[in-house]
Amino acid sequence: MKSHVAHWAMAPALAAALAAALAALPAAAETAPGGVAFDGGAVAASLTGAPGDATAGATVMTTNALGNCVACHELAAMPEVQFQGNIGPALDGAADRWTEAELRGLVVNAKLTFEGTMMPAFYKTDGFIRPGDGYTGKAPTAELPPVLTAQQVEDVVAYLLTLKE
Amino acid sequence: MRLPYRSKLAAASVLAVLAAGAVLADPSPDAELVVNEDIELVTRVAPGPAVEGVLTEVYSGWLYRETETRAMQMDDFDNPAMVFADQGLDMWDTVDGTEGKSCASCHEGIESMKGVRTSMPKMNGAATDLWSMENFINDCRTNRMGAEAWKWNSNDMKNMTSAISLQSRGEPMKVSVEGAAADWWERGKEIYYTRYGQLELACANCHEVNAGNMIRADHLSQGQINGFPTYRLKDAGVVSIHQRFVGCVRDTRAETFAAGSEEFRALELYVASRGEGLSIEGVSVRP
Question: What is this structure's pTM?
């Protein structure tokens, strides 16, 4: 496919549109929410097949509409982030307490590590009661996406792995 | 290998909770709510039957607010909700509808509404449905005045519920959960503990287990409704009980129930029973 595309010498706008469409599709190696393999609460394999980007992970963790981890967790490593919540434990030193696989499992679905925990599952698409379309308060009109993409989960895991004391 | 980590973590978070608890669980231990240097309101009481063994003490949301916000509610000249209660008071005497009547035509002065807020919601006259104050108001408007029903969260409705709630200021919350109301109460309780939405959060996660803790910039209260209708500074307007419920359920990434729905009336009854003994503050001020 790819080599044909190159031969067609597409108009740049069309090429850009196609590239954007391809980027939106899950990469071939990506694990779908239903296909994640757990060992207890841990998930050994990267959801994207590649390591994440810690800097992007920090953004996901502090953005309200994304992970918003700081809504519930304090993190001394991010002193610039105002208004950190204290519902869960402080995340500093998380990488000393947990392995990479355990951290990935915690972000994907913390309920398999801590039964009944308040922490939401960030890479799960079923089993909800009255799920909504994001924060609109309305029922979803299309298939429910996970709160975070596979890439975002891996980015968060990469950031968590930097939390050593 | 995993267990030791976890017990270490558990021990650490117990310590953290203890340390934070001393400061936050009862956030304003000395604050006393006295309005206009005259009306003393009860903001902390021993748990009533609905929350016996569940909460150690029942707190008004007022206690969790910053000093400035608390102060606004202590003087009616500073309380922005009073303007709306005044508009409701004007409406009380305003004739509307085909029958040529106002509220005052049947009920005389609005002081006759003293105590009404404390028992809401309750079964209607025919004992066929659980009604919030909004339902009773619309019943009068449509059946006795020949006027149009007001929308649940319309300004007219919120002005009127503000004016009526104010008549019960200082009276203790006490809803009936007996007889036909018992089934509604059970249903409300079930809703309170159901983890809705993609974030799978129940009212209890935030307002029972984490009252006193911070969720981002918000200091979580027990989610009591004794202060409603409330003036919300963030919205620059009066907020009804069901409006607040809609907002909280939406924040769990859930499909909410509608204001006025059976679900929210049942939930209102249950939440009201959790606040038994707290003074009606209506109208209160919240951030």
Answer: 0.90
